[in-house]
Amino acid sequence: MRALRTALKVSLRDMQQRTGLDPGYLSRLERGLAGAGAETIRRCADALDVPAGAITHDR
After folding, report:
1. Burial label, 25 (beta-carbon count in 10 A; 0-12, 13-18, 19+)
2. Chain centroid to CA 39: how far?
3. C-beta neighbour count of 47 within 10 angstroms
4. What is the pTM of this model?
């Protein structure tokens, strides 16, 4: 997700504002230190305006 987020020039702070998720959690998620359920994946995909598959593809 980090590669996609940075390619789209979306900061971690922007992701936090768009998703309502804790920036620490988002950081751990990007580093593979936290898991994500379907709702979290959907929120992140919506925040980046991409299909959910784009979020899970690079895992």
Report:
1. middle
2. 11
3. 21
4. 0.87
Tally of residues, the chain: 59
Cβ(12)–Cβ(23) under 8 Å? yes
Give residue-wise pLDDT tens across range 8-46.
999 999 999 999 999 999 999 999 999 999 999 999 999
Amino acid (one-letter) located at 44: C
By three-state DSSP, how is residue 33 classified?
A: coil
Quote the tokens at residue 29.
């998620």
H-type alpha helices, the chain: 2-7, 12-19, 23-30, 38-48, 52-56
